[in-house]
Design a protein that fits this description.
mainly alpha, single chain, 380 residues, 4 helices
């Protein structure tokens, strides 16, 4: 009986042990299943959180791109507006400058036409005076020839009649004095004509210089307008290059931010870190645009100052040139007045040499003629 009871007890306790072990195993399996379920739930929550963060990042990037596009559109509109305003202002200034230049050209042309007309009238008067002087000189020469012919006839008549006396000597002296006066007047006229021609040549050269200065001033004005247009074209090209570089830089920045390393860096440092970097990048390109605009405005301001100062500078240059021309004409006139007696004396000497040569030639011809007549008389 005792053995049967102990066997039953051992069986009972063995059953109890097996039940406890099975219960512990079931509890361990349940714990493992719970932990596995918790791990799966945590993984699912993490996946949901990452997907939500990725969606949020994409939404932020899309919002940033939209804001950047809006800012760029606003900047482009503002730039186009300012450019159109600057173009209108430049057009107004160009039109005003063109009208002023046209008015100056008309005034200058009118002045030049008046000067040309006055010069032409003066030239015509000089030509008329020269013609009148030449006609008077021809008349005087004709009268001189008539007097000489009359004197020769009287001399021949007196020689035939045998009368000669102090009257013939007085007439000869009067003829010599008259010939001297005629030579003096002819030398004075020749010197006067040469000096008038020198003054006309000087005036023509000075007018050519004035015309060259006017052409150079017109070229200078056109050069300033051309520089302004070229500066605006270069400015537009530079702005387009800056926009292109900004788009490329922002695209590269967004690409690096969307990578796995970029997302980890954003989770570690926060969203504001990348936002600050993006804002600094955009501000850098905006500063470059502002610097480019400032350079353009500085250049245009300098060119407009030059354009404003150009008429004054050109007027001063014209005034200096006119003063120089007037001083040159005064010096020439003074020099001519000082050299006129010497030139007249030299011209008179030349005329006397010519008359002396003509007299010698005439005397030789008369002698040859007389010798020929004598030979003919002897032969006869």
């Amino acid at each position: 009986m005792a053995k049967q009871q102990s066997a039953k007890e051992r069986a009972f306790w063995g059953m109890q042990d097996r039940q406890k072990k099975e219960a512990a195993a079931d509890q361990l399996k349940a714990e493992q299943a719970r932990k596995a379920a918790d791990a799966r739930a945590e993984q699912a929550r993490n996946d949901l959180r990452r997907r939500a963060e990725a969606r949020a990042v994409k939404e932020r990037q899309a919002a940033d791109r939209q804001r950047a596009a809006a800012v760029r559109r606003e900047f482009n509109r503002e730039y186009d507006r300012r450019k159109s305003e600057a173009a209108r202002a430049e057009q107004i200034r160009t039109e005003a400058a063109r009208k002023q230049e046209a008015q100056q050209d008309r005034t200058r042309r009118q002045a030049e036409q008046r000067k040309a007309a006055e010069t032409k009238r003066e030239f015509n008067r000089d030509a008329q005076r020269s013609k009148e002087a030449a006609a008077q000189e021809e008349q005087r020469r004709a009268r001189g020839r008539k007097l000489i012919e009359h004197g020769r006839r009287e001399f021949n008549q007196q020689a035939k009649s045998g009368k000669s006396g102090p009257r013939t000597e007085a007439e000869r002296r009067e003829q010599v004095a008259k010939a001297d006066r005629q030579r003096q007047q002819q030398a004075a006229r020749d010197v006067q004509q040469r000096q008038q021609q020198e003054r006309a040549d000087t005036l023509y050269r000075q007018r050519r210089e004035a015309e060259g200065l006017r052409v150079s001033q017109v070229k200078e004005a056109k050069g300033i307008h051309r520089q302004i247009r070229e500066a605006e074209e270069r400015h537009g090209i530079q702005i387009k290059e800056i926009d292109h570089k900004e788009r490329e830089a922002l695209r590269a920045f967004d690409t690096g931010r969307g990578t796995f390393k970029g997302r980890i860096e954003e989770l570690r440092r926060g969203r504001d870190h990348f936002e600050d970097q993006r804002r600094q990048l955009q501000e850098g390109f905006d500063q470059r645009r502002i610097d480019t605009h400032r350079q353009l405005e500085t250049l245009k301001e300098r060119l407009h100052r030059d354009e404003f100062a150009r008429p004054i500078r050109q007027a001063q240059a014209c005034k200096d040139m006119m003063d120089g021309h007037r001083q040159e004409r005064d010096r020439q006139h003074t020099q001519q007045e000082r050299d006129r007696p010497q030139l007249i004396a030299e011209r008179r000497q030349a005329i006397e040499r010519v008359h002396q040569q003509e007299a010698e030639n005439k005397l030789g011809n008369d002698r040859e003629k007389q010798a020929g007549m004598a030979r003919e008389f002897k032969m006869a």
